[in-house]
Amino acid sequence: MQSMKMPKNNTSITDSLKAFAIPVALYCVLLILIRERVGNWNSILTMLVLSVVPTITAYGVAFGFVSGIMDFSVGSRMILSGMCAALAGHYFGLAGMLCAAILSSVFLSLIVGGMYAVLKIPSIVVSLGALMIFEIAGMKLSSTVGKVSSAMATGQYIKTPASLTFVGATPWNFIVLLISALLFSLCYYRTRSANQAKMVGSDEIIARNIGLKPMKVKFVTFVVGGIFLGIASMVSACYSSAVGYKTEMASLAMVFKPMMAVIIGMSLERFVKMPIGIFIGSLCISIIFTGIIALGWPDSLQNVILGIFMLIVLAFPTIQQWIADAKRRRNARQTFETTA
User: Fold this and answer.
1) What CA dihedral angle connects 307, 279, 32 and 300, to 10 degrees?
2) How many C-beta atoms lie closer than 10 Å to residue 31's C-beta?
3) pTM to 2 decimals?
4) Residue 146 CB coordination number (10 Å)
5) Buried b vs exposed e over 227-266: b needs ≥16 C-beta within 10 Å?
6) How confident is the model at residue 15 (pLDDT cuts 50, 70, 90)?
7) Distances (CA, A) of 194 to 222, 250, 275, 316
8) What domains lie within the chain, and their CATH numbers?
9) Which is more confident, 298 or 246?
């Protein structure tokens, strides 16, 4: 029995090594190009730290994404919940900060999910409308708090209590990331709502025919995702020591990195579990952006390089399948020639 299990374990280890080889290869490229700037532990740690918030955010985006939802209000909701968390931290400490971050994020998710369920219009339209409303709300909240207390806000951003910024620093940020990954794994693989979301995203017509209510399932994904977005907003507020508002749809850009991390995580799911795949995706994006900045390349190249990288990662499973098919055909041909 033990000998029968060994190939499975070896395959699992090999698949994990294949997945982690992607960020390692990217880092090796940076070492070749700019070893003097990134060839030290501080640079590696910086890349890891910069991947924490996008990874947790991606955990919140993943539930809606697999069900077929494109939610562009994520950034504006994180800003508002981060502001609420920072304010609660001044009065109620760390526990109050965490509760305020999650509760406010879930509340905002309920609003967006409710609008989507009631209005029955595409999620892109609903989320863009909510984004503009939440951006204005964040600006008004920051301005109002700044007038009341200059110690907590400047009118442009709300300050995080100095005694709580350790949450965004090493090693506490990685501890929060680990807990979030375990919670995400539990929700994604062990809950009925997540399985229903996958079925709806795979084929909504079949899901409806077997008795599921796609709109209700998608509404639940907003709520579940809001928990992780709240955690991410708290860590982000502690890391930056303040939460500033964004206007003119500037918060829209905050969802792109997490969304790409989810896409990469889904493409790597045949090798590693989704939580690990998402982290690998976020880490790869962090390495790429760090390299672009270190090389002094213009910002316009970021999207080009990121797009090329994403195409390569998405094509990787297909390339692996081509290689496996070629090996099978070669083995079959050799077997045929031998027997003939």
Assistant:
1) 30
2) 14
3) 0.88
4) 17
5) bbbbbbbbbbbbbeebbbbbeeeebbebbbbbbbbbbbbb
6) confident
7) 11, 30, 14, 26
8) 14-339 (1.10.3470)
9) 246
